[in-house]
Amino acid sequence: xxxxxxxxxxxxxxxxxxxxxxxxxxxxxxxxxxxxxxxxxxxxxxxxxxxxxxxxxxxxxxxxxxxxxxxxxxxxxxxxxxxxxxxxxxxxxxxxxxxxxxxxxxxxxxxxxxxxxxxxxxxxxxxxxxxxxxxxxxxxxxxxxxxxxxxxxxxxxxxx
Length: 160
Fold this sequence. Notes:
Largest sheet: 8 strands, antiparallel
Distance between the termini: 27 Å
Structural class: mainly beta
CATH architecture: Ribbon
Order of helices and strands: EEEEEEEEEHEEHEEHE
Helix content: under 10%
CATH class: Mainly Beta
Number of helices: 3
CATH superfamily: Umud Fragment, subunit A
């Protein structure tokens, strides 16, 4: 198990900046710094995962699709097993038609679809970058305005 503090707005409303997430590092296998030593399952659409970044900062995103799969893109909307997501800006032309998610990769999006920097921008992510599954979040009481530590299941809300 590990803890992660959400730093950006890409997972709103599920997780606001300052929210703490509980991560099961062994949800999909035994993770080492270079990838998986052993993997016993794959992330599923809807899972909230912790991703290792090449720039040193981790990211929390929701799995939209796992490969091998094709995502359909039509009329500014991308569709897959994770539901539908609006396409904005350069992603409208870059992802027109269909998007292939190779085997051993995941396509991830933030719950705050309009503000998230995710696979719509950088493409599918190798599963080796998935460092664990976020099981639930604790909202930072100083940011919630209610004075209590609310818990929210990472699999509920914000996707669809």
